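Sharing a chain and its predicted structure for anyone who wants a worked example. Both blocks are below, sequence first, tokens second.
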Amino acid sequence: MLSKHSHFVVPLCHDKQTSLLNIPTTVSPSSTAVVYDQHGPPDIVTRFTEIPPVEINENDVCVRMLAAPVNPADINRIEGVYPVRPPVPGTGGWEGVGEVHAVGSTVKVLSPGDWVIHSAYLPGTWQTYVVEDQSLWYKIDKSTPIEYAATVSVNPLSALRMMEDFVALKPGDTIVQNGATSIVGQCVIQLARDRGIHSINIIRDKPESDEVKEKLIKLGADKVFTESELEVKCVKNLLDDIPEPLLGLNCIGGNAATMVIKFLKQGGTMVTYGGMSKKPITISTTSFIFKDISLKGYWLQEKNLDKAQYRCSIDYLLALARAGRLKYEMEMVPFKDFHTALERAMGKHGSRRKQVLKF
């Protein structure tokens, strides 16, 4: 659906008396959208469709989408395997940036031409126009590179909040993470560097591991290890003069999670925000009893950040992006080539860059 509103038909004015009662109401342009009628393989169940104009009520803002990413969670929602299953039929996409096209009569804080992102996680960003209440849009600086504006509110925000909400880190402290090549992982490295915090990073064994290590070190990583390099009796001997980590981040599970736990210092905390390996986390009794390790979970959608915290976090991250201090690899793809971007995001063409639809 284009918005929460149903299709609106403007009444015809037949005479002077009825024309006073039936003043034409502002409506959005028609929209091109990527929709799905049932859960299933995204490359099979998604299709383009045209959605007719909808009414713009007095508190509404009509936004022309500029860019929106294809996130793994977007794919999982269409597949029907995500913990939250939006009803079908549905419109894809949960993140993106747009330009205000029109506003309702009572809207004062936003104007046509402003750039906005959702201040809440709403479905339906894979379409050319979105109409929602003004309270659900947040204005951002238009000098922000469009690809970072489109992608700031999921991966970078998750990285920042996990670094701030579980352990009180200070300059000189250390974090350890697996999945270091992911967008979240790259953001963690750069945010840590910016704050004087050491980062230990674990990557998978691949032929190009040396090249990956070099890239992560250029981003600011202190140490980068492949999983095979950590198959040693005492990983702490690899730290040199870097303090043991207080915080660990896990998005893989299985053995990769165990490696994060092995690095943690007494009383450390591991936060799990993904399970890419689809394998369970195993922790030794010793780690619980004698090291007092804490295990936590993180899901941004259920974090319920208040508006002030959300806006402060987004502004901070976008300021870093504008200054060139927060970078990650993306690929801009025309909206008309959505299915190509989708296949790349699903790993069918070997691309590792985040796919961002450009409208």
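Comments welcome. Residues 193 and 220 are 6 Å apart (CA to CA).
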